[in-house]
Amino acid sequence: MSEVVFLLVPKLHLLDLAGAAQVFSTAADVLSDSGASPDYRLRYVADEPEVATAQGLSVNAETMWPQLGTDDLVMVPGWRSPGTAGGPRLSASQARNLFEHHRRGGTVASVCSGAFALGQAGLLDGRRCTTHHDLQEELARRFPDAAVIRDVLYTEDDRVITSAGIASGIDLALHLVAVRHGPALAAKVAREMVVYARRNGDDPQASAMLRHRSHLSDTVHRVQDRIDAQFTKALPLPELAAASGVSQRTLTRRFAEATGLTPLRYQSLLRLERAEHLIGQGATVESAARAVGFADARMLRRLRAGAAA
């Protein structure tokens, strides 16, 4: 059985910890239900027996570092205020244990600002890494020998694995389960967790649904809600305008002011993004095009060519 050890620091984010822990816990349950070895044992270590989280709930931890082998994983969840002034630093023993586990052939991983802990342990120098998009510049500044990769969900370089913000820890953990047990088991775990899709590491951190949502127009947000939910269907402009209670001309103007796009272009981006995910999972261009609502693959090919230009 592999040990999955979570190294906890003060003010850690609960979802950074709980999301990844749930993946390994569910994987153990799925394996056990199938008659196989559970294969994962979760442990939590810290300098103190009780660690306060950023959300106000304290969690218990062991204070003795366990004996680990090369098949074992140490993961560092992220925490609030990772900047130079406010972020916690690993103790000398924590940094040494992290470094030595990797040196002996073990795997280390981080979620969100947990990458700063790997940097403090000297594990990012000369390696590809990532973190939450708001923290990437700070990570690159503090660890100039690291190769910080922007706008990806997770990176893997010589048994050093880093993921982006918060929920991407679930993607990282599912990836590790897939590497060890195959994509079918990872997909079953994702299904048990009601995770919409198991994303690849090079998927962007901010989807089209998020990139164009920073405006303050209620009308446009309502139209985007409708498009987000039904982007595989034909959504004529008159229908969208009627549902939002404004004229077609007003909707087009407000949508462009808020997002820089037309409603049709926004819908096309959602279709393209979903199609790229399906293709990355092994679908053909033709089947992906049909799945996202295109009559055939010609429009999808044009969109893909335009995005690559």
TrEMBL record:
Organism from which the protein derives: Glycomyces algeriensis
InterPro entries: Class_I_gatase-like, DJ-1/PfpI, Homeodomain-like_sf, HTH_AraC, INH-QAR
PROSITE patterns the UniProt entry points to: HTH_ARAC_FAMILY_2
Taxonomic lineage: Bacteria, Bacillati, Actinomycetota, Actinomycetes, Glycomycetales
GO MF: DNA-binding transcription factor activity; sequence-specific DNA binding
Gene3D superfamilies tied to this protein: 3.40.50.880, Homeodomain-like
Keywords associated with the record: Transcription, Transcription regulation
Record's protein name: Transcriptional regulator
Domain of life of the source: Bacteria
Pfam families in the cross-refs: DJ-1_PfpI, HTH_18
Domain HTH araC/xylS-type: 221-302
